[in-house]
């Protein structure tokens, strides 16, 4: 049997097709493999990896990654190859490029160079990938240039995400610092107002009540209507003294400064007892804590008691204050009507605003706050914060 005649045209076509397929496969590997690697690398390692891969893809022996800021300053963030000639690449970078650009005799000792822009999501370039070779090479075809542009775009997206994340973290730290300052200023103002009320209005009300009592004791027998009026005035004065003391205690309870968190929380729990709600301490640590911790946990407990009185319709409340492994833990649990903790928070809902404030107070101290509530099954609040804070008074 005779072999079919040899067809050189067919052989060349098959070879060309094979080389095209091999080239497409190489471009695809470049993008897929690099894309998978970038998700595991730090920003600096990303830059080095992309630059090294780009140089290897085009067989270039020099490369730099340049980035510039809003003020126009240029930084070299990655390098590949002997450093002696890399400085000449910085001098020829074109920051106005919108697409890859091949140049010959562009830099001293580097007759072949490709510039690939790094563009952000707004389309503006914030950097460039410069690849060069010490021996004159043939210009890459359009497919290779497009592949390198896709590689640069992939890197640019990761770098931009990193920048946005850092900006967000900085903004979050700034916001947390402002909230922390606000809470401290609020506590200082509450303390000042509480002492002003104690030394001023409260003393005046107490003196007025004593004078009225003295007057009533010395007053001759009055007609029934006048006696009833005098008794109503005495009752009103006594009630005003009591309200003044409660107002001062709510602003800044002296028992917190004098006797610590446990006594202050138990004093707050008297409001529950006066409302006919049973209060039970499960665990009660009497240890003194840093001032910041005591204030934060007291305000969390105070807000929890406010919510129980206003919303819970509970008959029993359990309190737990523990100190364990350098963490102070406060739990407030009631058997009230509960609520759906996962529902969208209404900015005008005071109860949910209080929960957000409690969460923020714990978070500012590096702690955690959780709320577990079940409809008709009660609510449990748990705040846990580190006891030993940097710069905190012991």
TrEMBL record:
Gene3D superfamilies: 1.20.5.1930, 3.30.450.40, Histidine kinase-like ATPase, C-terminal domain (3.30.565.10). It is found in: Cell membrane. It comes from the Bacteria. InterPro entries: GAF-like_dom_sf, HATPase_C_sf, HATPase_dom, Sensor_HK_TwoCompSys, Sig_transdc_His_kin_sub3_dim/P. One of its GO terms (cellular component) is plasma membrane. SUPFAM superfamilies: ATPase domain of HSP90 chaperone/DNA topoisomerase II/histidine kinase, GAF domain-like. Residues 292-389 form the Histidine kinase/HSP90-like ATPase domain. Keywords: Cell membrane, Kinase, Membrane, Transferase, Transmembrane, Transmembrane helix, Two-component regulatory system. GO terms for molecular function: phosphorelay sensor kinase activity; protein dimerization activity. It is a multi-pass membrane protein. This is Sensor histidine kinase. It comes from Pseudomonas karstica.
């Amino acid at each position: 049997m005779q072999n079919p005649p040899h067809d050189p045209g067919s052989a060349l076509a098959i070879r060309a097709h094979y080389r095209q397929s091999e080239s497409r496969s190489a471009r695809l590997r470049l993008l897929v493999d690099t894309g998978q690697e970038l998700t595991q690398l730090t920003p600096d390692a990303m830059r080095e990896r992309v630059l090294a891969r780009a140089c290897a893809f085009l067989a270039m022996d020099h490369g730099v990654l340049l980035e510039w800021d809003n003020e126009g300053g240029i930084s070299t963030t990655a390098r590949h190859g002997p450093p002696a000639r890399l400085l000449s690449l910085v001098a020829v970078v074109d920051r106005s490029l919108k697409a890859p650009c091949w140049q010959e005799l562009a830099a001293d000792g580097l007759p072949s160079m490709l510039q690939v822009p790094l563009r952000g999501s707004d389309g503006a370039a914030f950097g460039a990938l410069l690849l060069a070779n010490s021996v004159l090479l043939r210009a890459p075809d359009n497919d290779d240039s497009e592949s390198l542009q896709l590689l640069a775009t992939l890197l640019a997206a990761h770098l931009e995400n990193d920048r946005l994340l850092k900006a967000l973290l900085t903004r979050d730290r700034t916001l947390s610092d402002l909230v922390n300052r606000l809470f401290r200023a609020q506590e200082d103002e509450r303390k000042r107002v509480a002492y002003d009320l104690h030394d001023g209005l409260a003393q005046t009300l107490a003196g007025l009540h004593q004078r009225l009592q003295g007057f009533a004791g010395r007053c001759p027998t009055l007609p029934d209507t006048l006696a009833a009026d005098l008794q109503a005035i005495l009752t009103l004065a006594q009630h005003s003294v009591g309200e003044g003391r409660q107002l001062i205690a709510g602003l800044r309870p002296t028992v917190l400064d004098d006797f610590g968190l446990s006594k202050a929380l138990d004093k707050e729990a008297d409001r529950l007892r006066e409302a006919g709600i049973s209060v039970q301490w499960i665990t009660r640590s009497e240890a003194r804590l840093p001032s910041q911790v005591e204030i934060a946990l007291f305000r969390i407990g105070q807000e929890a008691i406010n919510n129980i009185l206003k919303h819970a319709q509970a008959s029993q409340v359990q309190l737990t204050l523990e100190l364990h492994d350098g963490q102070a833990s406060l739990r407030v649990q009631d058997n009230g009507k509960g609520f759906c903790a996962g529902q969208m928070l209404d900015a005008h809902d005071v109860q949910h605003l209080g929960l957000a404030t409690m969460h923020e107070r714990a978070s500012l101290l590096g702690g955690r706050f959780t709320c577990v509530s079940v409809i008709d099954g009660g609510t449990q609040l748990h705040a846990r914060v580190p006891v030993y804070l940097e710069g905190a008074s012991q």
